[in-house]
Amino acid sequence: MPHIEIDGQSIEVAAGTTIMEAAESLGIYIPFFCYHPKLSVAANCRMCLVDVEKAPKPLPACATPVADGMKIATASRKAKMAQQGVLEFLLINHPLDCPICDQGGECPLQDITMGFANPHSHYQEEKRVVEDKDIGPLITTEMTRCIQCTRCVRFGQEIGGIKELGATGRGEHMAIGTYVAKAVQSELSGNMIDLCPVGALTSKPFRYKARSWELKHTPGVCPHCSTGCNTDVQSLGKEVLRVLPRHNEAVNEQWICDKGRYAYTGLNAPDRVTKPLLRQKDGEWAEVSWAEALEATLAGLDKMLARHGADKLAGLISAQSSNEELFLFQGLLRGLGSPHLDHRLRQQDFRADAAMPRYPALSMTLEELEREPLIVLCHAFTRHQQPLTNHRLHKAVLNGGKVVSIDSIHQDFNFPVTQLVAEAGADGHLYQQLAEHFAHLHEAPQRDPLAVLAQELAAADNPLILIGSALLHHPQAADLLAQVESIAELSGGRIGWLAEEANSAGAWLSGCVPHRGPGGHPVDAAGLPADAYWEAGMQGFILFGVEPGVDSMRGAEAVQRLANAEFVLSISHFAQEARQYADVILPMAAFAEGAGSYVNNEGRLQSFRAAVKLPGEARPGWKILRVLGDSLKLPDFQYNELSEVSAAWQHAVGDYGMDIPPFQAFPPLHATQALPAGPLLRLGDWPIYQGDPLVRRAAPLHNPLRARMHPQQAHLSGIQGEVVEVSTAAGKVTLALELDTHIPLGCIWVPLGYSETAVLGAAYTPCSVVMAALPERQPESLRAS
């Protein structure tokens, strides 16, 4: 190991260590702009020049590996003059606009200039100006400030996986921009703002809102996907103004996706509920006091239970709720005598419930994913469903691993993935064929991709099979799960789950499923699953943080059933959908307004606390449930503090472990029913920015609604226009059409999560498509790209 000396301090470091890394380990600061420990070394800013003994000129610390006996001076006259000269060149064309720059107060260029610059400049000429680029609704550009460090370019290529930004021109004419005039599409694009060492890239929603030193910082946990990214919620007064990643190498490293970064903009949506709402006899809504709202709730529940019994009462709760809220919710429903409670609004097939694990566990750490040699994704588009888990898979590929995807459509991954796509409606057949190939492993090598995958799985040492949320959305989910288990047994592989929402694991552990109580213990009498509520004649509903009209597979049917129910209580952040069917709407704390805990995909328990005060008369969700349970004279609801609820949750759940069996014993499965036949098969899932009530209201993240169809299928169907009418047995809708070769023949992709498409019913159903006339004024969903 080389033994070196930096500024008189001796240290022994590993071979290949750079001067920058060695200096950091000694706590010696060397200024830099282009260097970043998570990116490749570019060494193009030259700010980190240091004086190395016997070297004829200063060397860049970020790109120079140490050698045994090397003596380095970071603050000698030679090093200081080199750093001052570089900084003077960088400032030649940089505008003096710090007072109006959003980067002010947290700007490395500003700080380094104050600490290292020569106070006198030799430059007298005019500064050059660079035209700003419009790269979308999330990032504001001031390209005259750019110092061409290329951090944003390298991030896009190496972390984001998409080469969206690049450099054009040379010397003074060099400029950073998109290759063609278009918006940045990466779901990780906001991280380029954090990486930019100047004010060239800043947050468009945060622009001119506040100065960095005015903001209060509160540690939080992202409430969207199951990765559980750690966040820094930054607020001023009662308003959340910015959400940034909080460094946690074991979970999200130092990144966060755009959904986690910008969804806070939906907190102040026009339909935000800040006072209790009560439906009057004439159908109008009135703001009332909490006492009146609770009185109406108790009266409505008592009347409904007296007339129909607890078996006609059902509860639906979001898996973005905290462990404490989930625990109290199941206690409330079961305390009232109802076994019907669930968080799985998007699932259609529940025949495999008895075989489900204690909770959907990855059964390994996120860091361990990077070292997996072979990973098979089963209906899992991780790039949009778990962006930072997807980043770990990307690193696995960079480390020499292989990722294979089995899905209904060809997905747009941001790293090399071998994709096996089922023919229209033949997902089960694809898994069955893969399992059958294990009986012919010793035959001559075949070109069939499934045969190749079977041979690779058999040859691999303990391969990893990951089950995605889209598999559970399939109408034949139980059969697909049984086939996945069979493939794992045949290959000697492991199975992990990619849970859908921030606290899906906590929802299972807390007992928010109809067949299990807290800790995964079986209940005496199992209730109905969520998708069965709409046909079971339920007369009472308690909804917590959900919008069944867009959160469930059969949205229009759900809204109709809720509207016909005798009593519906909605405990929610937003009122737009609930006004259609609820009798009482109680306002509760949203993201950054309440405290609690989540269990992420690994099984990691993470706590968060409120960053801002509650708006209006909104209350924390756990307090609303506590008061309801106490008012209904239910046992075990006498809690005064959140810590007491947390302790009760932990006692009920027990030690759940992080590495658990992926399945329990499968029940007998009846013969698989073929999917209904029709002219075309309607496919669909929830897009990245339509997955929950908060992100749906985040205006900067909105994407236009479009149907997608293979160009050849459009030709076969006689579709020549840009607008189509899609019809199913449940309803019809007119949508803009995008031709996309990723969609299999015989199918049309219509996304879920939109109120417009809820009328079509569930995915994987037959539909017909015809051309439609383009209206004179096109709504957002009909605008062509």
UniProtKB/TrEMBL annotation:
Lineage: superkingdom: Bacteria
EC number: 7.1.1.-
Pfam family membership, one: Molybdopterin
InterPro entries: 2Fe-2S_ferredoxin-like_sf (IPR036010), 2Fe-2S_ferredoxin-type (IPR001041), Asp_de-COase-like_dom_sf (IPR009010), Mopterin_OxRdtase (IPR006656), Mopterin_OxRdtase_4Fe-4S_dom (IPR006963), NADH_UbQ_OxRdtase_75kDa_su_CS (IPR000283), NADH_UbQ_OxRdtase_ferredoxin (IPR054351), NADH_UbQ_OxRdtase_Gsu (IPR010228)
SUPFAM superfamilies membership: 2Fe-2S ferredoxin-like, 4Fe-4S ferredoxins, ADC-like, Formate dehydrogenase/DMSO reductase, domains 1-3
GO CC annotation: membrane
Catalytic activity of the protein: a quinone + NADH + 5 H(+)(in) = a quinol + NAD(+) + 4 H(+)(out)
Domain 4Fe-4S Mo/W bis-MGD-type positions: 215-271
Cofactor(s) essential for the protein: [2Fe-2S] cluster; [4Fe-4S] cluster
Gene3D superfamilies: 3.10.20.740, 3.30.70.20, 3.40.50.740, ADC-like domains (2.20.25.90), Dimethylsulfoxide Reductase, domain 2 (3.40.228.10)
Domain 2Fe-2S ferredoxin-type: 2-78
Keywords on record: 2Fe-2S, 4Fe-4S, Iron, Iron-sulfur, Metal-binding, NAD, Quinone, Translocase
GO BP, one annotated term: ATP synthesis coupled electron transport
Coiled-coil blocks: none
Cofactor binding description: Binds 1 [2Fe-2S] cluster per subunit.
UniProt-listed CDD domains: fer2, MopB_CT
A GO term, aspect molecular function: metal ion binding
Protein's UniProt keywords contain NAD: yes
Segments forming domain 4Fe-4S His(Cys)3-ligated-type: 78-117
Cross-referenced NCBIfam families: NuoG
Protein's job: NDH-1 shuttles electrons from NADH, via FMN and iron-sulfur (Fe-S) centers, to quinones in the respiratory chain. Couples the redox reaction to proton translocation (for every two electrons transferred, four hydrogen ions are translocated across the cytoplasmic membrane), and thus conserves the redox energy in a proton gradient.
PANTHER family: NADH-UBIQUINONE OXIDOREDUCTASE 75 KDA SUBUNIT, MITOCHONDRIAL (PTHR43105:SF13), RESPIRATORY NITRATE REDUCTASE (PTHR43105)
Similarity-based family: Belongs to the complex I 75 kDa subunit family.
Name of the protein described by the UniProt record: NADH-quinone oxidoreductase
